[in-house]
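Researcher: Quick test of sequence recovery. Tokens follow.
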């Protein structure tokens, strides 16, 4: 926990320096690829981004592998609007359990850190796009 507090303090100092003491709002970081999340950064990533889609997956899961390129494409298409993240359920069973993940792939749309919708299974890109649009 002490290490996490040091990281938080460092990030806060960097943010304050970027703002230069002015009352400006920090610009949202544009991320055009899925970011890896795990137990060490999951909550921080959710808190940092307004709209985030988390892909709960596992290495052995063939449907997960099938949608991986779609998730990559959507991350590029929605860069600046939605952040896409990938969480390996085998490596992070506690987080998967927290959100009741019983089948993968599962994609959960988070708004302001809270889950608002989820889809389970390997859906076509067009359906995933409609799902993202519906949740924006």
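Model:
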């Amino acid at each position: 926990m002490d290490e996490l507090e040091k990281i938080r303090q460092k990030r806060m100092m960097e943010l304050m320096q970027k703002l230069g003491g002015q009352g400006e709002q920090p610009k949202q970081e544009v991320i055009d690829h899925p970011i890896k999340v795990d137990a060490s950064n999951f909550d921080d990533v959710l808190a940092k981004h307004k709209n985030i889609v988390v892909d709960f997956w596992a290495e052995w899961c063939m449907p997960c592998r099938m949608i991986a390129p779609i998730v990559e494409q959507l991350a590029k298409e929605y860069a600046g609007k939605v952040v896409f993240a990938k969480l390996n359920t085998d490596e992070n069973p506690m987080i998967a359990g927290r959100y009741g993940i019983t089948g993968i792939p599962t994609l959960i749309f988070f708004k302001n850190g809270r889950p608002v919708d989820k889809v389970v299974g390997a859906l076509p890109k067009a359906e995933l796009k409609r799902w993202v649009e519906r949740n924006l």
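Strands lie at 35-37, 51-57, 83-88, 106-111, 114-120.
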